[in-house]
Each structure stands twice: as structure tokens, then as C-alpha cells.
Design a protein that fits this description.
This protein is an alpha+beta fold. It has four helices and four strands, in the order H-E-E-H-H-H-E-E. The chain folds into two domains: 3-77 and 140-168, Threonyl-tRNA Synthetase, Chain A, domain 2 (2-Layer Sandwich), CATH 3.30.980; 80-137, no CATH class.
């Protein structure tokens, strides 16, 4: 059994995919929705101003659609996986383009800036589809298995509404 097939990681990946599917449904119903999600082995938390009944509808609909085979709902272009992939690749590309001088200590050279900008831009363009692929294969699952919604709770925290979707598997 691989690391990504372990029971704990499978639970997190299913909840992460379920979170994304729920955000996709909410985004279709609410133009310009601003929301952040965070998944764990017991479910996921949504941060954003949206009504609790809307979250309940979206979560129920998302789970139904995942079960019906719409696995693509588990992948989201604004996921932290894409951001982390972009950050890593652009940093590596920038460091590679800047390079090190022949001495024992690194020294910044302004003349390497155009190459660094070009390398970082190319890496950022490449990172988007790579991040989506990493999500699809490693950090999310579009196969909910026996995932069920246990409860959905709301907790207003100042100006941001926090919804918790607890799951059982």
C-alpha cells in the first residue's frame, strides 16, 4: 500500500475533493464568491460570507454529483496545491536563473534579473496545469466512497462566516 492509499490520507483526499466540489457548486450559484476552504480527516471548513442553507445545499449537491461520476469537481484552480506548486517552481527557476558566482558566497547580480523574470514567468505558466495534475492524482479524490455528511455547523467570527462540514466514512 502506498502512502496516498493509507486510510488517513484517503479520508483527507476525499474530504479535500468534497470541499472543492462544494465550492464549485457555491461559485455557480454566487457570482464573485470569495471563499477559502481547509480540509482534514474529519471534514472541511469554509471561510466566507454565505448562508448556511446554501452551504447545506451545495454540500449535498456536491456529494451527489461526485457519486454520479463528476470527479472533475474535486479539482479547483485556486487550490493551495496550485499555489504551492507555483511558489516552488518559480523559486527554483529564479534561483537557477540567477545562479551563484564562482566564489564561496552567493552574490546577487542585477544583470541576471531579465533571465530570472523570464524563468519565473515560464515556471508560473507551467505550474498551473502541473498543480491541477498533482491535485487530481495526490491531494484530492473525486471518488467519495462511503463518505457521508455528519453535520454542518455555522460559526460567525466577526465579518467572516465559518462553516464546518463534518463527515463520516
Amino acid at each position: 500500500m502506498s502512502f496516498f492509499d493509507s486510510p488517513l490520507i484517503t479520508r483527507i483526499r476525499r474530504n479535500h475533493g468534497f470541499e472543492h466540489a462544494t465550492i464549485h457548486i457555491l461559485s455557480k450559484r454566487h457570482e464573485n464568491l470569495s471563499m477559502v476552504g481547509r480540509s482534514d480527516w474529519n471534514g472541511f471548513t469554509l471561510y466566507g460570507t454565505v448562508d448556511t442553507d446554501e452551504v447545506k445545499y451545495a454540500a449535498t449537491e456536491a456529494l451527489r454529483r461526485l457519486r454520479e461520476g463528476e470527479a472533475e469537481l474535486a479539482v479547483h484552480p485556486r487550490c493551495g496545491t496550485v499555489l504551492a506548486t507555483t511558489g516552488l517552481l518559480t523559486a527554483l527557476a529564479t534561483f537557477a536563473a540567477i545562479g551563484l558566482d564562482s566564489g564561496s558566497r552567493s552574490r546577487f547580480r542585477w544583470s541576471s534579473m531579465p533571465a530570472a523574470i523570464l524563468a519565473a514567468t515560464g515556471a508560473a505558466i507551467f505550474a498551473q496545469p502541473l498543480g491541477l495534475l498533482i491535485q487530481e492524482r495526490y491531494t484530492t479524490s473525486g471518488q467519495p466512497g462511503n463518505l457521508e455528511i455528519q453535520r454542518i455547523t455555522a460559526n460567525p467570527n466577526g465579518r467572516v462566516m465559518i462553516h464546518r462540514v463534518d463527515t463520516i466514512q
